[in-house]
Design goal:
single chain, Rossmann fold, 37% helix, globular
């Protein structure tokens, strides 16, 4: 997957968990979609450390190590961040803009999942050079998507 958002390194922030395991941060507000993502990752890549947040604001708090995410050994920096485009408080596009301004970690891959309900925001994500993927509409496609993402 070539259209990843390349991010610079921020001096105050570390990288990865102690075990060296790949870490995925998924920002998804829909509990059903979170459950499906958890299942797909456990089937496609059982060794992946998954962390879920409910919206873009929690994703930023996670990356900044604020509040409940302050303990870096418990909440390591992600190798990959998957954002839902439409979320409350702070949507996927706003997180992409925050990432571009703050550059929290070098080498973190970012992608945005979108449905067809907001083509204007989807176009804005693409214009910022971030990988945009149509949300898979069944579990088999989701597992295939996750397997491909883990190999990227």
């Amino acid at each position: 997957m070539s259209a990843w958002l390349g991010l610079g390194h921020h001096q105050q922030m570390g990288h990865h968990g102690e075990s060296g395991t790949k870490t995925i941060l998924i920002a998804e507000d829909n509990p059903t979609d979170r459950g499906l993502m958890r299942y797909a990752w456990s089937v496609a890549e059982p060794g992946i450390d998954m962390f879920f947040v409910r919206d873009g604001l929690e994703a930023v708090e996670y990356l900044k190590g604020e509040g409940k995410f302050a303990e870096r050994t418990k909440y390591p920096f992600p190798d990959v961040m998957v954002l839902d485009l439409r979320m409350p408080r702070m949507d996927g596009l706003q997180v992409v803009d925050w990432l571009a301004s703050n550059k929290p970690i070098e080498g973190m891959k970012v992608m945005v999942l979108a449905d067809s309900s907001d083509p204007d925001k989807a176009a804005q994500v693409k214009a910022r050079g971030v990988k945009l993927v149509q949300k898979p509409d069944n579990v088999s496609l989701l597992i295939e998507f996750v397997h491909g993402l883990a190999r990227a």
